[in-house]
Design goal:
282 residues; alpha/beta; 11 helices; 48% helix; globular
Length: 282
């Protein structure tokens, strides 16, 4: 099946970014979210992102108009029934994703590919809840999607080679660099990144230094463009905690134990930029 229409499930930061890069590459994109306000915010955010690219002379007005024309938004899941490729970008909760995949399996064309943007959850387990496990694959984009080049392409145990190859090609068409990664908790990116962030939170928790100074150490000493605590705020502390919990429970290794301060911050609703408060105030 040729990929002509792409469905995106979830209009958050990741979903809107995925919709933008796919539409900019010429694909027809249908973005679904149950929350109509989230869809409106996503569409306005995409327009603002494209405007910034125009100001940087990386995009023409015509390209922007074409991109926006390629995107439609809906609060009805059936709107993506005709998509050849569906990319799920919902919250990092396995039960939520499994529910979505069961529904997608029922409404989408039997030949359609179902992909997930999960940053840590088993592709094999998500595939197993569908009647098309060989057509389920992982596409882990980095945040912010329009800027970051990497896509981890993850095969479940059941994923067919032709499905993997098709998704790898789509990743290239939308201007990303796909990397072949095995299905393992956290894959490669978050297997390395999240324990580092968690350790940065432990440094704050134990009073080694202030948040600003911990981030300064990593920026000046290790040439990181952003410190681990500021990055945690960008990712979302709830997402960081979910990933650490997946690593901790999957490997049964205490080195992945979430920092108690991270748990407390999430309990308090201090989730980072999206709530206006995390390790920093926004």
């Amino acid at each position: 099946m040729n990929i002509q229409q792409i469905g995106v499930v979830g209009a958050g930061q990741m979903g809107s970014g995925i919709a933008q890069v796919c539409a900019l590459a010429g694909y027809q994109v249908v973005m679904f979210d149950l929350n109509g306000e989230a869809l409106e915010k996503a569409l306005s955010g995409i327009a603002a992102s494209l405007q910034r690219l125009i100001k940087k002379e990386k995009l023409t007005t015509e390209q922007m108009q074409s991109c926006l024309a390629n995107i439609s938004a809906s609060t009805e899941l059936n709107s993506i029934a005709e998509a050849n490729l569906v990319i799920e970008a919902a919250s990092e909760q396995e039960n939520v994703k499994q529910s979505i995949f069961r529904q997608l399996d029922e409404i989408c064309d039997p030949a359609a590919i179902l992909a997930t943007n999960t940053s840590s959850i088993s592709i094999t387990r998500l595939a197993a809840v569908t009647k098309r496990p060989s057509q389920v694959v992982g596409m882990h984009f980095m945040n912010p999607v329009p800027v970051m080049a990497l896509v981890e392409v993850i095969r479940g145990l059941q994923t067919k080679d032709e499905v993997f190859d098709r998704v790898t090609l789509v990743s290239k068409v939308i201007g990303k660099t796909p990397v072949d990664v095995k299905d393992s908790p956290g894959f490669v990116a978050n297997r390395i990144l999240l324990p580092m962030i968690n350790e940065g939170i432990f440094c704050l928790h134990e009073g080694l230094a202030k948040a600003e100074d911990i981030d300064e150490v990593m920026k000046l000493g290790m040439s990181h463009p952003m410190g681990p605590l500021a990055l945690a705020d960008l990712i979302g502390l709830d997402t960081c905690l979910s990933i650490m919990q997946v690593l901790y429970s999957s490997f049964n290794d205490p080195k992945y134990r979430p920092c108690p301060l991270l748990v407390q911050m999430v309990d308090a609703g201090y989730l980072g930029r999206k709530t206006g408060r995390g390790f920093y105030t926004y």
